[in-house]
Amino acid sequence: MPCPRQLNGKIAAIGIDIGKNSFHIVGQDRRGALVLRQKWSRGQVEARLANLPPCLIGMEACTGAHHLSRKLQALGHDARLMPAKYVRPYSKGDKNDYRDAEAIAEAVQRPTMKFVATKTSDQLDLQALHRVRERLVSQRTGIINQIRAFLLERGIAVRQGLRFLRIELPGILASRTDVISHRMVRILEDLSVDWRCLDTRIEGLTSEIEMLAHQDQHCERLMTVPGIGPIISSAMVAAIGTGDVFSKGRDFGAWLGLVPKQISTGDRTILGSISKRGNRYLRVLFVQAAWVVLVKLGPEHWERYGLKSWIEAAKRRLHHNVLAIALANKLARIAWAVLNKGRAFACIKTDAMASRPA
């Protein structure tokens, strides 16, 4: 196979199968014929592609792909990222790295392919803060559940809620020595120390995320949407940037997995439960935002945001859990419009709003 320097003008599309230390490269000409098939080390990729004229380069959206995509775009190439599940149908035969790279080269040339926007370093930093915070919250939940389980084994039940356990645990350890052994007291005290350490780290990360959100104009605009605060707004900006990869808010809601799964054939249309596709973390946050609007804001604030007639009509025909999902989808579509159009959320009442169905 000739070296890349000898292929100037022949390569139209390149597929890169990313590894930790080695990268498998497959190049195709405009007719789809294979003209490049090589294995490069990490240090060779940028140097060798710098010698090629600008071309279309495809990669799966995985660890390290955003960094490499930015580097290749700086060299003048049209680097694009794709979800791995959309590349898989183009793979032929048994799996190996070269066939994966060839499938990537095939997929990136399809006009209907859905691409992933390349994240900036600031987006990746913000996303890392959310990933670490999510992991710490999960660990704290595990510790709390373990403490409750140990207490229940001794016949001690504590009211549901994090704050109630935090308040009652010191008193239980001090007064219920008749049913809790000294060894178990020591174990629960150690778990309580771990709990406090996690609280401190979570509070620190939350404060940093809130500070960054208030400094970002996109996050500030998103926070004008009901139920959306610094955590959700910053997570959304970290995930999709300005939302240019979606043509409309409906596509963003579908990407979050907040729409029903569709199984249709012939004249039959069957809608199931929500698809739960895409970003699980962001989907959970939007569902929590919907519950905040339904429970904490209440009807007195629905009118101000233009949601009262829609929510009241939906409540008459939907289960409260289904209503929360529907509202989460609505909030996600509103948030995308705010982010993509670059203006804050404002409810402008018209005569048509009163007659609009839910």
TrEMBL record:
GO molecular function: DNA binding; transposase activity
Signal peptide start-end: none
Annotated protein name in UniProt: IS110 family transposase
Organism: Bradyrhizobium niftali
GO biological-process terms attached to the record: DNA transposition
Residue intervals of the Transposase IS116/IS110/IS902 C-terminal domain: 219-302
Transposase IS110-like N-terminal domain segment(s): 14-152
InterPro entries (alphabetical): Transp_IS110-like_N, Transpos_IS110, Transposase_20
Pfam families xref list: DEDD_Tnp_IS110 (PF01548), Transposase_20 (PF02371)
